[in-house]
Amino acid sequence: MASSRGRHVAIVGAGVIGLSCALEIRRRGFEVTVVEQGTRAGEATWAAAGVVAPHHYGATPGPLYELLRRSHALYPAFVQSLSRRSLDWHENGTMAIARTKAEAEELEARVHWLNHAGYSAQLLTRSTLSELEPLCDGAFESAAFFAGDAHVDPRLLGLALKETVLQEGVQICFGALVERIETMGSAVSGLSLSGADHILPAEAVVLAAGAWSAGLAPGFRLPVRPAKGQMCAVKTGGLRRPVQYPEGVMIPRTGDLMAVGATVEDVGFDLRINPDAISEVRAAAAGVVSVVADAEIVETWLGFRPRTADGFPVVGQSVVDGLVVSTGHDTKGIALAPVTAKLVADLVCDRHVDPLLTPFSPERFS
Ligand SMILES: Cc1cc2nc3c(=O)[nH]c(=O)nc-3n(C[C@H](O)[C@H](O)[C@H](O)COP(=O)(O)OP(=O)(O)OC[C@H]3O[C@@H](n4cnc5c(N)ncnc54)[C@H](O)[C@@H]3O)c2cc1C
């Protein structure tokens, strides 16, 4: 796409990825329309826990860590640039608990390589753990503190993004289903919306439809599947920061609540909440923080993470000129939003491909 101002960019999906991209592209002077089939800001986004950490969910040294690290560095300014002030954003670190010898080995190795990479990570004794997080009273083999980690309430983040993009002149069409991404020759030409009698024309399109992205790729392979996650909120105050353990995470929410999750299930778009799965999620958390065992469950929910076979996001120019793919963020989309938005805007607005994107290119599936 040419870099002249005033060109129209259409974005499929109003999750954290679509809206972050919309904001960054709009701020570079382009006309932007976001098309969202639902009525709220995002699906997986609305369901997420909200941990923002460069070593999140198994990231190891390499390109994914580099991407997460870059995003982590951008986060404070990203949050500051949003209109809504209350996002439940906290830069007070996360804890990790290992309960078996094998888990302890993994955790200690992680602390080692993170320190080596210049990121603060510290192993804890029982007394330092209790000092930092008094609610953690379960047995453990090893525990660690990552002082640079942060967390956010993803629902508030989604709302803030929605409000900010609207204030800055982005159009959002809620309740509009994109049936097809249209092409003319080798280039993208716009979007076909369900029930509309004309195409929404666009010189560039960003495909950010989360777990639903695969079916919208015009003529190329985009193997993104849903990974279902079920969570619950329990009525328990006192947790200071997210506590991660191999089965999941506990994360404080305002109002003396704690979000607890999550399952990871390869069951397609199954919309059922399974009480047994929720019990297991809660039992795993109670092994770390015993008060969770008897705390009242005040909400249960689920979401579909957009997952690729190799666990890497898919961000980059597709084989269709002007069509940029931005999906597959799996368990890390909240954490990766700021860097994704910047790199996608570089592509859409300036045709600049950051070398950081090479391992995440959609071309790896062709
Ligand atoms: C339980 C759970 C816990 C998580 N915890 C964390 C965490 O702690 N930290 C972290 O970084 N990440 C976490 N994640 C992952 C994170 O939520 C996702 O990676 C991220 O939200 C993906 O954002 P997205 O915008 O791509 O997808 P979504 O938020 O799903 O947005 C995609 C949007 O596209 C819309 N759409 C789809 N198809 C169409 C169509 N044809 N027409 C119009 N609109 C369409 C959908 O309605 C949806 O709103 C978690 C996810 C889950 C489920």
Q: What fold name goes in the CATH topology slot of the largest domain?
A: FAD/NAD(P)-binding domain
The pLDDT mean sits at 95
Looking across the biggest beta sheet, what order are the strands in? 5-6-4-14-15-16-13-17
Global morphology: globular
Derived structural class: alpha/beta
N- to C-terminal separation? 22 Å
The count of DSSP E runs of length 2 or more, i.e. the number of strands, is 19
**Under the CATH scheme, which class of the largest domain?**
Alpha Beta
Question: How are helices and strands ordered from N to C?
Answer: EHEHEHEHEHEEHEEEEEEEEEHEEEH
CATH superfamily of the largest domain: FAD/NAD(P)-binding domain
In terms of DSSP E residues, the strand content is 25-35%
Tell me the major beta sheet.
8 strands, mixed
CATH architectural label of the largest domain = 3-Layer(bba) Sandwich
Residue stretches low in confidence (pLDDT < 50, at least 5 long) are: 1-5
* Cα gyration radius (Å): 20 Å
Number of helices: 8
Describe this entry's structure for a reader.
- Mean pLDDT is 95; it is low at 1-5.
- Helices cover 28% and strands 27% of the residues.
- Helix 1 packs parallel to helix 8 (333-350) and helix 3 (63-80) packs across helix 8 (333-350).
- The longest helix has 18 residues, at 63-80.
- With 366 residues, it is an alpha/beta fold.
- It has helices at 16-27, 44-47, 63-80, 101-116, 126-132, 154-167, 275-286, 333-350; strands at 8-12, 31-36, 51-52, 94-98, 122-124, 142-146, 150-151, 171-174, 178-184, 187-193, 200-201, 204-207, 224-235, 243-245, 248-253, 257-261, 297-308, 314-317, 323-327.
- The chain has 8 helices and 19 strands.
- It has 2 domains: 8-49 and 155-223 and 310-365, FAD/NAD(P)-binding domain, CATH 3.50.50.60; 94-147 and 225-308, D-Amino Acid Oxidase, Chain A, domain 2 (2-Layer Sandwich), CATH 3.30.9.10.
- Strand 15 and strand 16 form a beta hairpin.
- An 8-stranded mixed beta sheet has the order 5-6-4-14-15-16-13-17, with helices on both faces.
- The chain binds flavin-adenine dinucleotide.
- Flavin-adenine dinucleotide is lined by residues 12-18, 35-38, 42-45, 47-51, 177-178, 208-212, 216, 229, 231, 261-262, 303, 305-306, 327, 329-335.
